[in-house]
Specification:
Blueprint (H helix, E strand, L loop, with lengths): L3 E5 L4 H17 L2 E8 L15 H17 L4 E7 L2 H12 L3 E5 L7 H6 L1 H8 L4 E4 L1
Parallel strand pairs: 1-2, 1-4, 2-3, 4-5
Helix pairs in contact: 3-5
Length: 135
Amino acid sequence: MFKTVLFPIDQSRETREAADVVTNVVKKYGSRLVLLSVVEEPPPDAPSADPMVSPEVVAKLLENAQSLFSGQGIQSETLERQGKPAFTICDVADEIGADLIIMGCRGLGLTEEGADDSVTTRVINLSPCPVLIVP
């Protein structure tokens, strides 16, 4: 049913919690697992403290995630891309023929601004395949 699963990762608690669901789904369906991390370009006029803009940090994050899944007996592929996270996640899902995207959900509140700015909300609206959100 889910031949290819895309798991976008960052350094959030929500990503770590979603990893258990990814493990269960991939093992149950014998899926191909693709780990994706997006390096976001900071605005040129704003210094950024966000570690997800550092290619070195992202590479280490992918390596650690791949080791985590390998310890569970799951082989995975890693991809590192640069761009806007929501758009890049959806583009990669389309490119690899993903049958499912699994991602954590950040609790940004119920305000319109929070909902509009959520990467998760944008992925749900733009995704070429089903999206499983882990609360």
